[in-house]
Specification:
128 residues; mainly alpha; 6 helices
Length: 128
C-alpha cells in the first residue's frame, strides 16, 4: 500500500487529502484512529500519528478529545484552493509560456479546449 519513495507518514497524509478532495471523507466525518491505521496497514502507530499531526496543522483534520480525528469544516474547499493554485502555477503557467513561444494564439488555445478546432482534448477518462 505505502510503497512510494516518500516517507509513509507523507503517503498517509496524501491519501487522506485525496479522500477529502474526492468527497470520500466529508466534513465532520471521523477518520480511522492511529491504532486502526497501524492495524490495517501494519505500520507503527507513531507513523500514523505524525501524518495526523501534520493534517491538523494544515487544518484538514481536528481532534475531538476522547472521540478521535475528524475532517475539519472547510477542509475540502481549502484543499481545492491549494490544488487549483498549484495547477495554475505548476502546470498551466508553463504550458501557456510554451504556447506563447510556439506562437499559439489565445483563440487557438480556447478553440482547442472547447473542441471547436477539429481536435478534441482528451477527457479525464481517456487520459487515465
Amino acid at each position: 500500500m505505502f510503497d512510494g519513495p516518500e516517507p509513509i507518514y507523507v503517503q498517509i497524509a496524501q491519501m487522506i487529502r485525496a479522500q477529502v478532495l474526492a468527497g470520500e471523507l466529508a466534513e465532520e466525518e471521523q477518520v480511522m484512529s492511529t491504532t486502526q491505521f497501524a492495524t490495517t496497514f501494519r505500520i507503527n502507530p507513531a507513523t500514523a500519528a505524525k501524518a495526523f499531526t501534520g493534517l491538523v496543522e494544515e487544518g484538514v483534520l481536528y481532534k475531538r478529545r476522547g472521540l478521535g480525528m475528524f475532517v475539519a469544516p472547510g477542509a475540502r474547499e481549502r484543499l481545492l484552493e491549494q490544488h487549483r493554485k498549484a495547477y495554475f502555477d505548476d502546470v498551466l503557467a508553463p504550458a501557456l509560456a510554451q504556447a506563447d513561444i510556439l506562437g499559439i494564439s489565445t483563440d487557438e488555445l480556447v478553440a482547442y479546449v472547447l473542441g471547436t478546432n477539429g481536435h478534441r482534448p482528451p477527457t479525464t477518462t481517456e487520459a487515465s
